[in-house]
């Protein structure tokens, strides 16, 4: 289905929980967030109901997110059922990687083909600082397990000035010998840390740093791919990519909508509005379809996040699904 600006919407991001086993500094405040009650979170059957309706609108890729989706009980069975919905061409999952050692093969068997793994440092102490206690060793073991299971991997690094920006080149080097996609993401001030501007490293600066060390070739992205501008280092097996939500929006090519764990449908991560799908889940399939059509129809031409930072309400990425 095309939105009112001619963009083909074929990608749904589905957050199945607001809970997480980490407390990453750019995702939520140090004291955490108020978690939703079990009664507020959609049941798996309701998520499947939404996806079945979305397929009729042309959704072909679903990415399951959180919070940390692997902490929710029954997730493997849900992913298997999701993968078997007629019309779905790809099921992917975003994770922090802590539980991959025990779940990687089950994910592959359930029909998941791609993983996005959030990993913001290759230094144990820095990683623990950013995640407020996470184990880098555990994540690296999870990457090995995922690769052994045959899962395709993307590594997501949020680049923060003075914290991990010196690791851009070592991260890019991971793509040399591995068929991985390493993606660098500009810091977004969703939780409004004090002096957040000091942490922002622009995509242009990231690209310049990479070009100082490597010969890069711009390459095309896939049909269902996200907003990264992809490159390949000369001779590398994998790729690198840069995502610029702050310095250079990519709204003109946005192909997605998203549904939160509580059933709020959003046409844009950085726009304030949403539509509560819960009432429509109790009505006919036709009414749910109309609701999703409304979400697509309301998708803005572009977000105005930087212009509206002062009046926007801070939010935790774990509550929406990054």
TrEMBL record:
Residues that, per the record, bind [4Fe-4S] cluster 1: 20, 24, 27
Broadest EC class assigned to this enzyme: lyase
Key word Transcription present: no
Amino-acid positions noted as binding S-adenosyl-L-methionine in the UniProt annotation, renumbered to this chain: 26, 67, 118, 188
Annotated binding of GTP, by residue: 13, 63, 94, 154, 256-258
Annotated PROSITE patterns: MOAA_NIFB_PQQE (PS01305), RADICAL_SAM (PS51918)
Cofactor: record remark: Binds 2 [4Fe-4S] clusters. Binds 1 [4Fe-4S] cluster coordinated with 3 cysteines and an exchangeable S-adenosyl-L-methionine and 1 [4Fe-4S] cluster coordinated with 3 cysteines and the GTP-derived substrate.
Domain annotation Radical SAM core: ranges: 4-217
Annotated positions binding [4Fe-4S] cluster 2: 251, 254, 268
Cofactor(s) for this UniProt protein: [4Fe-4S] cluster
Pathways involved: Cofactor biosynthesis; molybdopterin biosynthesis
BP-aspect Gene Ontology terms: Mo-molybdopterin cofactor biosynthetic process
InterPro entries: Aldolase_TIM, Elp3/MiaA/NifB-like_rSAM, MoaA, MoaA-like, MoaA_NifB_PqqE_Fe-S-bd_CS, MoaA_twitch, MoCo_biosynth_MoaA/MoaC, rSAM
Key words of the record: 4Fe-4S, GTP-binding, Iron, Iron-sulfur, Lyase, Metal-binding, Molybdenum cofactor biosynthesis, Nucleotide-binding, S-adenosyl-L-methionine
Pfam families membership: Mob_synth_C, Radical_SAM
HAMAP family assigned to the protein according to its UniProt record, in alphabetical order: MoaA_B
Task performed by this protein: Catalyzes the cyclization of GTP to (8S)-3',8-cyclo-7,8-dihydroguanosine 5'-triphosphate.
Quaternary structure, from the entry: Monomer and homodimer.
Protein name, UniProt field: GTP 3',8-cyclase
Species the sequence originates in: Malonomonas rubra DSM 5091
